[in-house]
Amino acid sequence: MSSLEEELTCSVCRDFFSQAHPLPCGHSFCSACIREAWSVQVEGKSRFTCPQCQEEHGEVLCDCCPPGAAEGQPLLAVKTCLKCEVSLCAEHLQPHLERPAFSTHLLVDPLGDLSQRKCPTHTEILRYYCADERVYVCSDCLLDGGHAQHKVKALKQVEEDLKIILQTLLSKAEEKLKDGVQILKEHEAIDSTMADSLNKDHTQVERLGSDLQVQVKRLVDALREITKREKQQVIKRVHEDCSRVRSDMCQVLSIQHYLASLLAETDPFLLIWVGHGAKQTCCSTAFQSDDTKLLADLNNPLFIPEAVSLDRKHILEDIESKYREFITGTLRCLMTRVKNRLPCAAHPERFDHWPQVLTAQAFTSGTHYWELEAEGFWDIGICYRSIGRKGKDGNAFGNNKHDRKLAAWHNRRKTRLTYQMTGNRVAVAVDYGAGTVTYSEVGPSNNLTHLYTFSTLFTQPVCLGFGLYKAELNSRISIVKL
Predict the structure, then answer these.
(1) How far is it, in rounded angstroms, from Cα 454 to Cα 437?
(2) How far is 402 from 374, CA to CA, in rounded Å?
(3) How far apart are CA 77 and CA 59, in angstroms?
(4) In sequence order, which residues have a C-beta less than 8 Å from that of residue 287 and are 6 or more positions away?
(5) Cβ neighbourhood burial of 98 (10 Å; 0-12, 13-18, 19+)
(6) 332-481 is classed in which CATH architecture?
(7) What region, left, alpha or beta, does residue 72 occupy, with left being phi > 0 and alpha being psi -120 to 50 degrees?
């Protein structure tokens, strides 16, 4: 690789850089590699080192101490003054720290070789920084006029300005770390809390699984019973119809044998005696017999069974009824108000202020009916699916307190009801076409007591909604019948 390419290549990532960042040792790196290398603190090293040569300034002797001082042990410098171009031990550094004349001198960590801090053109100490060209300059560089229109500041001023920025960024980083620690603390606390909650959830899932298996078995048994009963009824009816047809055929066969025997009789006296004679008419001979029952049976038409209906509507209705019972029993909607907000992810369809939920199913026609059990502080409503979910205003249902005093709400208007419920079961009936919503109380014998009826014109899909308030009242709602 040519020397020019080597100078333009970062020795860490081996990519060309557009802006070199030289270190005092002479090596240059791109800003990303410098930041990454210096973001990791190496144990035992308190200063930044070159990622390539790992150069770190070693021991530097004090330039003001006479040779052989302190019993032959050289005194180590603690600072280097770039203006005086000397390295100073702690003792000789005191004048620079105490006397005002040295207040403008720039002190850095001890440097053994000042050549990297000198201008390559004028061999003067680099005491200034040009922000426009992002280079260090000496006093002679300024006198040459090459940076006359540039923003040039003394290194001490640049250091102070940069440290103010760095201190601001450091404070921001520390604040961010503090927030991270708080977040971790909160989530670690949630972890233990959630463990108990998840165990309860697991128990509930297992219980629901067992209940579901029982309900599924009941559903399958009920459906089998429906088809079995239908099959037995059809078979019984067919057998009864066939028996009746056979009975009629047996009767006709008996008459046939009787008449055939008469026709085969060769003794006229016997034939007449059995037939009780014959009467001649002008047109024909009519068979006369005292056996009127025989004639009635012969003239009576054979029994023709009605065709077995292939209409399975009643079976489907029974199956649908059982299925609805299954849905009610297994997917019974139970909602309970809790004291603390659950850690649920944000969702556009979730109410963020009011403790309310909507059913997933919405409808635009037909009649619908539910029965619900409600306790505590609650509300039950029919609303448009498009109801607002975010914020407080205009997104709330009405509410009814635990003292069983009721109120009806519509378009933000409240109607107090004089009726007081004696139980906790409420029936809701919706007739979309008629535009009515009727609320009733379900009594112990399933009798309905009318509470209130809304009348309106539905223009959008509507659905059932619930609201629960005051967890201390154990507020809850459950759907018990669809």
Answers:
(1) 5
(2) 10
(3) 8
(4) 275, 278
(5) exposed
(6) Sandwich (2.60)
(7) left
Distance CA 326, CA 212 (A): 9
Q: 248 is written with which tokens?
A: 């009629």
Q: How far apart are alpha carbons 477 and 33 in whole angstroms?
A: 61
Note whether 109 and 80 are within 8 A (CB): yes
Q: In the chain, what are the domain boundaries?
A: 1-55, 201-326, 332-481
For residues 275 and 259, what is the distance between their CA atoms, to the nearest angstrom?
10
- Token pair for residue 120? 């390559």
Give, in words, the CATH class of 1-55: alpha beta
The long-range contacts involving 151-155, CB below 8 angstroms and separated by at least 24 positions, are 152/128, 153/128, 153/129, 154/106, 154/127, 154/128, 154/129, 155/82, 155/106, 155/126, 155/127, 155/128, 155/129
d(CA 69, CA 87): 16
Q: Are 1-55 and 332-481 in the same CATH fold?
A: no
DSSP string, 254-313: HHHHHHHHHHH---HHHHHHHHT-EEE-SS-EEE--S-HHHHHHHHSPPP-PPPPP---H
Mutual orientation of helices 268-275 and 155-264 as an angle, nearest 10°? 130
Which has the closest alpha carbon to 436: 463, 456, 460? 456
Where does 300-369 have alpha helices with state H? Answer: 313-330
CB 153 within 8 A of CB 161: yes
Count CB-CB contacts under 10 A for residue 374.
Answer: 22
- Cα distance between residue 129 and residue 362, in whole Å: 71
Other C-beta atoms lying within 10 Å of the C-beta of residue 261: 11
Q: How far apart are the first and last CA of the chain?
A: 82
Encode burial over 195-204: b for 16+ CB neighbours within 10 A, e otherwise.
eeeeeeeeee
**Could you count the other beta carbons within 10 Å of the beta carbon of residue 458?**
19
Each residue's pLDDT tens digit, 176-202: 999 989 888 877 776 676 677 677 667
Q: Calculate mean pLDDT across residues 336-352.
A: 68
Phi-psi region at 277: left, alpha or beta (left = phi > 0; alpha = psi -120 to 50): left
Residue 418, SS3?
A: strand
- What does the longest C-alpha to C-alpha distance in the chain come to? 178
pLDDT, tens only, 208-258: 677 778 777 877 787 788 778 888 888 888 888 888 888 888 888 888 887
CA-to-CA distance for 417 and 419, rounded, in angstroms? 5
* Residue 245 exposed, middle or buried by CB count within 10 Å (0-12, 13-18, 19+): middle
Q: Is 429 helix (H, G, I), strand (E, B) or coil?
A: strand
For 353-370, how does the pLDDT look when each residue is reduced to its tens digit (9 = 90+)? 888 888 878 888 989 998
Encoding tokens for residue 415? 């109607």
